[in-house]
Amino acid sequence: MTVGFILLSVIIAFSHALCPNGWRHFQDSCFLTKQETLNWNDAQHACQGINARLAEVQTHAKVEFLRNMLSKEDGDWWIGAKDDVTEGQWRWASGELFDYTDWAPNEPNNDHDQDCLQMFKTDQYHWDDDRCDVAKHFICEKGFNSTLPVIG
Ligand SMILES: [Ca+2]
Ligand SMILES: [Ca+2]
Ligand SMILES: [Ca+2]
Description:
Residues 1-17 form the signal peptide. It is built from 3 helices and 8 strands; from the N terminus they run H-E-E-H-E-H-E-E-E-E-E. By secondary structure, it is α+β, with helices and mostly antiparallel strands. 30% of the residues are buried.
């Protein structure tokens, strides 16, 4: 093996361990704030279109990272959970039931059948359930060590 080949291998390995341009790295994830506004389903499809998914944040540390990230933004933000199958039984889109939660006071209230999870500006970006057909900004997430192609 030549030195050049080893160097190239190291560069390739390293480049796969970075978040794409514009994404923020935290722990084992890369996060992207999308300013366009879509309903929850279209937002999930938009994330999937860039080899990601709506953010699924299952720890206090990740939730606080996102809240801090949004403190420089405006509006409300979809993330990746619903209770549309069984009312009150919240699941991340990947299938996991909620463990850690960060609900705003008096939420979730299911007002007029709210089945999708947003980070709610009015309550300092704590969690709120809202109607899935409302258009909002959204946060995509992909794995930091993802083997999926890096989108530049
Ligand atoms: Ca419902
Ligand atoms: Ca609900
Ligand atoms: Ca609500």
